[in-house]
């Protein structure tokens, strides 16, 4: 793609202190990203809203003095740096980064091709890293900011049919956990948000790739999930407007959490996962503990 389109900084006079907070949101033309952008604008904040097509952002969010729509393909690191530079030129700072750009891949692990997996990671993991690395220098200089990475219920527990997508969200969880530890001493927060099934376009073809290869042996696992996705689409239990308000509360908190699960389905998944891990760990505790050096031998080696 061409370099990110930016609105000239002289088009709308804006002082660096005009807005309570300045947000940079990726994947902001639809779904969760658009809802968060709308909520931030509604409370008087400035928003740098990015999408592969800047026109789609303007079409969704309308014209606002506080809105800077930018074209950004997060898989292009140079574009990420350019977009951050444009945001800083316009508003002087970035208080909140929301890494929302991403998409799903539906299919059994074996059914997906190497190219499908690379494209998925390029957006969901490497794209997030490109934008984060571009934003953090300005946050470190100010010793302030909040990095919000959008994960998923699938970042808590993987599932048949969504294994490779879930693996990207597991990566996002691990990256955010490290960022939380690295940035906290600098006065910068990092939170991973874990939405369950929310009524957005995520299961539409624009946000969900489906592996064309279908293996009959997976009909009862990944195949069943393919069918379920069709039924669930646009019937999900989660309200994206309420999700956006929860993110506003998150960012307003002086002590935001490392993880924010959203939706009763995610809460149930967390409870089930913890119960499963606890049960399995108890069953195999003796084997797990048997792999240390014996205490007496360890003491002799330390002497």
Structure description:
The protein is an alpha/beta fold. Helices cover 47% and strands 14% of the residues. The protein has 10 helices and 9 strands. It has a 7-stranded parallel beta sheet, sandwiched between helices. Helix 3 (77-91) packs parallel to helix 4. The longest helix has 29 residues, at 114-142. Residues 1-15 have low confidence and may be disordered.
Instruction: Give the class from helix and strand content and strand pairing.
Output: alpha/beta
Q: Spatial order of the strands in the main sheet?
A: 3-2-1-4-6-7-9
**How many β-strands, per DSSP?**
9
The biggest sheet, with number of strands, parallel, antiparallel or mixed sense and barrel status, is: 7 strands, parallel
Helix content: 40-55%
Specify Rg, calculated over alpha carbons: 21 Å
Report the mean per-residue pLDDT as an integer: 89
Write the layout of secondary structure elements.
Layout: E1 22-25, H1 31-42, E2 46-51, H2 54-61, E3 67-71, H3 77-91, E4 96-99, E5 104-106, H4 114-142, E6 145-150, H5 163-183, E7 188-195, E8 208-210, H6 222-232, H7 240-252, E9 259-262, H8 264-283, H9 285-289, H10 295-302
Parallel strand pairs: 1-2, 1-4, 2-3, 4-6, 5-8, 6-7, 7-9
Helix pairs in contact: 1-7, 3-4, 4-5
Name the descriptors.
single chain, 303 residues, alpha/beta, two-stranded parallel sheet, 10 helices, 9 strands, globular
